[in-house]
Design goal:
The chain is an alpha+beta fold. The chain contains seven helices and 31 strands. The termini are far apart.
């Protein structure tokens, strides 16, 4: 019994000695100002490098835990190696006064109790070291789906260092960031302040109340006041400044709106661009059109697609995949949608494409408006066909064959209904056998035409925007389509195949621009003009439009 008690006491003494020498917890500063961040350091030595998860819930009563950083370092002492685990915890006091930091469990030990004195800032100190964060929303009562501009400002009259501005968290809304910050000066109460401004745009997904949490700024300042008031010689302070939270009242669409798609915007425009159209349209011809929607104060994801839909049986409409993009015009979010359509004519006569009307809601004037595109009408003729082998003027019609016996078949006029019935039956059977392959080939041709037009459009955009890298890639794709049997992978292969010296010269300019300094400017309009001319020359030389869709009713010889 004595032996067991002795062993228990020895074990307890070893554990207590280990408890005293294996842990360290301290504050970098035992006294800070209200609104400043305190740093709690915890160190733990162990033979095994194991970082324990810290339970900081005991701190939540008097502090807000902002950040926890951990690290492990290998140490040597008396020729013995051990590992030092370190935790750096940033805490923000919730109130001034003498605040207790309770013990925390680290492995098998508890950290000691620490005390932190939080001193309220005097008006003089606050005035000399003024740092504020403001949060503003416009409008505060938006419609669901409407853009709300969020402005975050850090206003200060003292230099800031090593700062980080945390944007507010917003639930039930989509956020669009400008990605840019602006800096400027303002005057308040006769004093000059510096301003760091950041802008966001949010779009609420449903009606009701939305809370926008405070924006926070954390950073270092060098205090201009006498640091002796805190009993510390350090003048560098880590501060945390937060704005007030905001609440938005998101409204439902008004009952006056009669459109099928809710579009709240400041401005909305429709535009269409038709490809070059011949004066004589025939059955089987195709018409290409690009439709675009641009809305101020509305993201591109909200814009409707497939606006060109025709129920008439004289045409078929093929819609390409739409492209959407967002940009900022100042603080205004501008959404844009573009979509290509191909209209294939299937029957002759007057063909009328209906007008396109898109209803939207003017959020500034609180009124419904209509963006409209006028309709178009064309007269389409039936394609010319070859002469049939029937002589309706005579009493008999003959077909001469070259069979093995040189048979000549004469059809009597009195028997023509019977032969017409046989011919119609054979024609129907042939159509039933061929209609599916024809449809597949037509769809493949349409897809190829749309892809070719997209490549040309991409090359045009690259040249007009003077982007040599994008123009190079688009030109290679054009060259591969122009000479499909050749391995086109560089500008030199295009250069040796062109007959125009001017074209070759523009290719040299593009090649130099690809490897020139960034300060060198390249003008791509001349190259696009020559590519466009080459494309027109090729289609005129072959006698067919390479980028037109195949006829639905081809001529028969």
């Amino acid at each position: 019994m004595f032996r067991i008690s002795f062993l228990f006491c020895v074990t307890l003494l070893i554990q207590l000695q280990s408890l005293c020498h294996a842990q360290t917890a301290y504050l970098r500063s035992n006294q800070i100002f209200s609104g400043d961040i305190a740093e709690l350091m915890i160190e733990y030595d162990n033979q095994i490098p194991s970082l324990y998860a810290l339970d900081t819930s005991a701190l939540e009563a008097d502090f807000k835990v902002l950040d926890i950083k951990s690290s492990v370092s290998r140490m040597f002492e008396s020729n013995e190696a051990f590992h030092r685990m370190r935790w750096q915890i940033e805490i923000l006091p919730r109130r001034p006064g003498n605040l207790k930091i309770p013990p925390m469990q680290v492995g098998q030990i508890l950290t000691p109790t620490l005390m932190l004195e939080v001193v309220p800032q005097s008006p003089e100190l606050n005035s000399a070291n003024n740092v504020q964060v403001e949060l503003q929303a416009e409008p505060e009562r938006p419609y669901v789906g409407q853009q709300t501009q969020i402005v975050i400002r850090v206003i200060h009259n003292i230099p800031l260092f090593d700062g980080n501005l945390t944007e507010p968290a917003i639930d039930n809304a989509d956020t669009y960031s400008h990605g840019l910050e602006s800096r400027y000066s303002i005057l308040r109460d006769g004093r000059e302040f510096q301003v760091l401004e950041r802008n966001l745009s949010i779009v609420a997904r449903s009606s009701g109340a939305i809370r926008i949490s405070p924006a926070n700024y954390r950073g270092l300042i060098k205090s201009l006041a006498d640091a002796s008031a805190t009993g510390s010689t350090a003048t560098t302070r880590r501060i945390n400044r937060a704005s007030e939270a905001l609440f938005l009242e998101v409204r439902k669409p008004p009952p006056e709106f009669s459109g099928s798609t809710w579009l709240p915007a400041r401005e909305l425009k429709l535009d269409q661009r038709w490809d070059e159209i011949t004066n004589k349209l025939q059955v089987g011809d195709s018409l290409g059109m690009t439709l675009s929607i641009e809305a101020e104060g509305l993201p591109a994801e909200a814009l409707p697609a497939d606006l060109l839909s025709i129920d008439a049986g004289k045409v078929r409409v093929y819609a390409d995949q739409e492209t959407r993009s967002n940009r900022f015009q100042g603080r205004e979010l501008v959404g844009r949608l573009e979509q290509r359509f191909v209209v294939v004519i299937t029957e002759p006569g007057d063909i009328q494409l209906p007008a396109i009307n898109l209803k939207w809601w003017d959020v500034e004037q609180e009124v419904e408006r209509i963006a409209a595109l006028s309709g178009k009408t064309w007269n389409v003729s039936r394609p010319e066909t070859g002469k049939a082998g029937i002589d309706t003027a005579g009493k008999t019609t003959s077909w001469h064959g070259t069979g093995s016996r040189g048979l000549v078949i004469t059809l009597a006029r009195s028997n023509w209904p019977w032969y017409v019935g046989i011919g119609a039956t054979l024609l129907i059977l042939g159509l039933l056998m061929c209609i599916k392959p024809v449809r597949v080939r037509m769809n493949e041709s349409i897809a190829a035409v749309l892809a070719g037009r997209r490549k040309l459009q991409l090359l045009k955009q690259a040249c007009i925007s003077n982007n040599p890298a994008l123009a190079f890639r688009a030109l290679i794709e054009w060259g591969r389509a122009r000479w499909p049997r050749d391995n086109i992978n560089g500008l030199f292969q295009i250069r040796i195949r062109t007959k125009s010296s001017e074209f070759a010269e523009e290719l040299d300019h593009l090649d130099k621009a690809l490897y020139a300094d960034h300060g060198t400017t390249w003008q791509g309009q001349p190259l696009w003009r020559l590519v466009s001319a080459e494309h027109r020359h090729l289609t005129a030389e072959t006698g067919t439009q390479k980028d037109s869709l195949p006829d639905l009713y081809p001529q028969r010889s």
